[in-house]
Amino acid sequence: xQEVTQIPAALSVxxxxxxxxxxxxxxxxxxxxxxxxxxPGKGLTSLLLIQSSQREQTSGRLNASLDKSSGRxxxxxxxxxxxxxxxxxxxxTGGGNKLTFGTGTQLKVEL
Amino acid sequence: xxxxxxxxxxxxIEKRQSVAFWCNPISGHxxxxxxxxxxxxxxxxxxxFQNNGVxxxxxxxxxxxxxxxxxxxxxxxxxxxxxxxxxxxYLCASSPDQRETQYFGPGTRLLVL
Lengths: 111, 113
Prior knowledge:
heterodimer, A: mainly beta, six-stranded mixed sheet, 11 strands, 0% helix, B: 11 strands
C-alpha cells in the first residue's frame, strides 16, 4: 500500500524567502506525481504534474523534482509571496490509476 | 471553460439522516472522481468512474455510501444513513482520461450532528 508523507506539516516564512516542501513515498511504481494547492474552503488546484519518466517540471516561480529511486519529490517556491499562503499537497498515481495524497504542508508567508 | 461544479456547498444533517451531493464535471472529461477529505488529512478516493462505469470503489463504504454517473456526465454521491465520522469535505474531480491532470470542484462541506 502506497504511503505518502509530507514534511513539514506547517511552515511559516517571511516574504521573499525561497523554500522547499518535501514529499516522500514508499512505492516507486508510479505513473506520475502531482503537486496541488488548496486554499481554505476551496477545492484543489493542480500546480505541476511530473510523469514518471521525467525528473522535474517548472512553472513560473515553482519547480518540482522527482526522484523515484529514493521515493522523494520536492516543490521549490522561489521568492515567496503572501499570496502563496495555502496548503500544498502532493499526490501520486500508482497501480490501478489511483491518486494517493499526502497529508499536506500548510504554508504561511508573512509580510 | 467552466470548471467542475458541485452542490450544495454546505450541508448540516443529523446522524442517521440521508444526504446527496451532486457533481457536474468539465465537459468532455471521461473520468470522474469522488474524494472524502477529513479535517487535517489529504483527500481519500472514494470512487472513480470512467464514462459511466466504475473503475475503483475499493474505499467506498458500500453499506452506507452509493454513487452513480448516469449517461457518463453528472454524478451523485449519497450517504444513507449518515454517521458522525462522515463529517468531511466531499470533493469531486474530473480529468480528460485516467492518469491525466485532475480538476477539482469547490467541494461540499458536510457536518453530521
